[in-house]
Design a protein that fits this description.
This protein is about 25% helix and about 25% strand. With about 100 residues, the chain is α+β, with helices and mostly antiparallel strands. The radius of gyration is 13 Å and the shape is globular.
Length: about 100
């Protein structure tokens, strides 16, 4: 993903599991650390979770998508995207609008 090429991005960071303060806590014991955290110039906070095609439909991915969507519903400035090779362009287009 070319996040740095989007003009509306204030900054983004690559999350490192268990080393970053940002996580989403679901109903399972382990915390969920999205792969990327993006902040836009409109102060939207975007959590991006990247998955390979072989992991899109597994149980762990479904769990992360579910808690990501719950997190997103808490505030109009929170956004979650599950990203894979088939939807990168679509996600980048949506990010440009935030």
């Amino acid at each position: 993903m070319d996040l740095e090429t989007l003009p509306n991005i204030k900054f983004w960071v690559r999350s490192r599991e268990k080393k970053d303060p940002f996580f989403i806590q679901g109903w399972k014991k382990n915390k969920f650390y999205p792969d990327f955290i993006v902040v836009t110039k409109k102060n939207n906070i975007v959590a991006l979770e990247w998955k390979g095609e072989d992991r899109i439909s597994n149980e762990d991915t479904q769990y992360k998508e579910e808690i990501g969507k719950i997190w997103e519903s808490l505030n109009k400035n929170l956004h979650f995207f599950l990203v894979h090779n088939g939807n990168v362009g679509e996600v980048l287009t949506k990010l440009k609008e935030l």
